[in-house]
Amino acid sequence: MNYLKHKWEECRAVAFVTYKEWSAYRTHSLVSVFVGPVYFIVQYFIWTAVYGDSGSLAGMELTQMIRYFGVSALIGYLTMDFADWNLQMLVRTGKFLTFMLRPVHHRFFALSQKIGHRILGFFFEFLPCLLIFHFLFRINIVPARMLWTILSVMLAFLMNFYVNYCIGMTAFYLVQAGGVRAVYQLISQIFSGALIPLSFFPETVQWIMTFLPFQYTNYIPAMVWIGNKSIGQMGFTIPQAVMHQTIAVLIVMVFSEVLYRASVKKFTAVGA
Amino acid sequence: MMSHVKIYLTCLRTSFSQAAAYRADFLMSNLITLLSNILFPLATILIYTNGAEFTGWSMWEVLLIQSVFSMSSGVATMVCSSILWVTMDHVRQGSFETVLLKPISPLFFILSAHFDTSGIGLFAGGLTLTIISSVHVGVVAFGNVVQFLILFLAGLIVLCGLDLVMAAISFRWVGNSRIPEIFDSMKEFGKYPLVIFPKGVRIVASFVIPVAMVGFFPASALLGKIGAWTFLSVIPCVLFLIFGVWIYNRMIKLYEGVGG
Amino acid sequence: MVIIKVVNLVKSYTTYKRGSGFKETVKSFFRRTPVPVRAVDDISFEIEKGSICGILGPNGAGKSTTIKMLCGALYPTSGSVKVMDYSPARDRAKYVRKIGAVFGQKSQLIWDIPPIDSFAMNKAIYGISNEDYEQRLKEMVRMFDVEEVIHKPTRVLSLGERMKCEFIMAMLHKPEIVFLDEPTIGLDVIAKTKIREVINEMNRQGTTFILTTHDLEDVEQLAEHVIIINHGKKVFDDNLSKLKSTLGNKKIVNLMLAKPYEGDSIAGALVIRRNNELDISLEVDLEKQNITDFMKTLTNHVDFKDISVKELPMDMIITRIYNE
Q1: Chain C residues whose beta carbon lies within 8 Å of the beta carbon of residue A95
Q2: Which residue of A has its CA nearest to B197?
Q3: A27 interaction partners in chain B (CB closer than 8 Å)
Q4: Which of A6, A12, A17 is facing C118, going by the closest CB pair?
Q5: Angle B106-113/B234-258 helices, nearest 10 degrees?
Q6: How much is the pLDDT for C30?
Q7: Deepest of A3, A17, A119, B6, by most Cβ within 10 A of its Cβ?
Q8: Judgement on whether residues C225 and C253 belong to the same structural domain of the protein
Q9: Model confidence pLDDT, tens digit, residues C260-314
Q10: Which of A272, A223, A268, A267 is nearest to A244 (CA)?
């Protein structure tokens, strides 16, 4: 119990400090308030043109598609992450050492940082864009199943974090770890669902994606949010989709733990 | 004028020898920008393979717009995108004075000293896709190619103007590393057939911030889909560049006024 | 009482030769040439509780590697380290609560916010109680005289002010032992003096300090116990007065002469180096003559345009010790 209380205090302190640290740049988030709606407008007209008279494309109707893109952007603001960049920087500059000298698990520290950073994102990116989408663009953005949506977005938050943290840990092994990051981001851009709903891809690609982390960071939560009856190639219901997401997160968590232990062992062996 | 050409060529040579010194980095970064930019037409391909379309446009015609767009962005990255990030960096670090101390115009100095080789991959990717799409679309008349080149040049002028406007913003919005995102989002309107947008957007994208000139208009010229009136929109492109230069220089004046 | 006991400590690792050209880079991508490095080579020593121990040596001598092993951030290749009752690297999770560490260039402070906020974060990490935190903070802030500084964003602080805050950050949880890696590097004289003062005061209150440095002055003003490391080997391990008697009290005087001087000594000081016929260095033995007398004789003997007086540089100290 005392342990949990301490962890809570620690998380709160780190999150608060991060919040404060990034508050200085909160006007920068206004860029999102401009850029988000602009991309959304573009998508809106693209899809309105593409649908034309056809009622449904790749299993989605036009209104669903438009909601999908709005929601996908909003999920991006809630789950955005730079743990990969941050960890690579710490390893490259040797500053990771300062975490070895303090009684703190760096991954927990980084997760707390992300929480603080995203609370800021919630107020300065997510909320303004939500309001613009809902009241200015008149898109019905309210989740169909509120609790499942919150759960799914939280899982996406964790998924993004743990995967990015793993990418960051490559810096312990590679000199040019920046390349790994760029390649991952590239693939993620395409297969997370932010570019286009995954149902547009060929069946085999969709099937492979079930076993990769990408769709669990954006596509699945977006589909849960808009309340689609049948999600993904296997036609999951909402609870099934969230369950799969949970399993995926657990697997990545275990993987990141294994990698973390190996990395710390390597760090303490050669001082990286 | 001749001395300016000489300065530019000398700086160009330095940029290339720098790139040569870090060949591995150079190849890597080019490969990644190339991949990420030739993959974005993927959405278009998926739309068409799922049986939908932009009315009146075949898949290869839309891809042509997007590959011309990549080519244009590639050239702009090499030639003028340095204005934005160099200005941003200098303003953030409070070191813009070093630019002002040079005995040539600040704008010209930045342009020539920072030729960005990372645009090469993007340009090459765009060019390849343009050729492939053109082949699929069918015979392209010589006259169309000439028209294309004129409009392509106008597109570069627009990108350069946009870079200048964004750089001017960075004088005011110090340290905001996300300004380039605004730049990218504005360009978005040039990637698709302009007809899909409502009239208001079309007018803005053709005459006010003429981003349609970056991909849509030159590609349409190649396809022979434009009328003579399109060349009228070269005028707003030039005006936009003039506006960019004016506002950028004005910001420099204000910066000097404030002093370091 | 012995608080740190190091026996036959060895740290070796393999680095890889990295080619510079493109071909080399690609080649090294597939097959790399291993280069074994023995950073710490069979070192043993003991440090007393409540002392200040200076680990000296030139850059790349193995000081940092040694101190990292003492902190638990590096596993020894062989040999043993015992600090209090811990084996640092193995018991790291528990051990790091008991120690404090300041690694010169590797800041714990957060760049964009005031140090006071970073302190509060460490308070939570170490689980320091409110009363302890308040009292300790007040005390340390007073000692370093940084009442206002800690409320300004870290990025606007001078290097000296930042270093003082790094110290506070590392000592809020009242560590029994504090490790300092190059604590005064790059600081101005005033900041150096202040930091040394505080180290001495904390030491009087019972904290043990271990510091690495290549600045002889740090050792003179702080440490009674000196360990000198060169090429990974221990070359000296005794108290300061022993070091002083070994080296004598000597200064190096660099002169920029107005006209060439041919002799082997000036004003009783040996010419130890000649960069060119006008730029020479002298070694003055202060046990034979005091510096005032030397300067008087010097000005009478030669004309010079510029002069600077320095401590014996590290490389000379090591050569002297080897020659003993």
Answers
A1: 106-107
A2: A45
A3: 173, 176
A4: A17
A5: 110
A6: 61
A7: A17
A8: no
A9: 888 888 877 888 888 888 888 888 888 888 888 888 888 888 888 888 888 777 7
A10: A223
Q: Is B28 exposed, middle or buried (0-12, 13-18, 19+ CB in 10 A)?
A: middle
Give the position of tokens 């075949």.
B58
Least confident of B43-52, B95-104, B233-242: B95-104
Last residue of some domain: C194, C225, C246?
Answer: C246
For chain C, what is the total number of helices (H) and then of strands (E)? 11, 14
Residue ending a domain, among C215, C230, C246, is C246
Structural domain boundaries, residue C255? 248-323
Chains that touch A (3 or more CB pairs under 8 A): B, C
Q: Is B24 on the interface with C (CB under 8 A)?
A: yes
Please return the burial class of A56, using the count of CB atoms within 10 Å of its CB with bins 0-12, 13-18 and 19+: exposed
Convert the pLDDT of each residue in A116-146 to its tens digit: 999 999 999 999 999 999 999 988 889 988 9
Q: Are residues C95 and C227 in the same domain?
A: yes
pLDDT at B260 over 70: no
Contact C271, C281 (CB under 8 A): yes
| Cβ atoms within 10 Å of B99's Cβ, excluding its own | 18
Query: Helices A62-79 and A146-169 sit at what angle, rounded to 10 degrees?
Result: 50
Residues C60, C208: one domain? yes
Beta strand segments in C57-154, E: 78-83, 99-103
Q: Provide the ipTM.
A: 0.89
Torsions phi, psi for B157 (to 5 deg): -60, -40
Give partners of C (≥3 CB pairs < 8 A): A, B
Whether residue C121 and residue A20 make contact (CB cut-off 8 A), yes or no, is no
Calpha distance C199→A229 (Å, rounded): 67
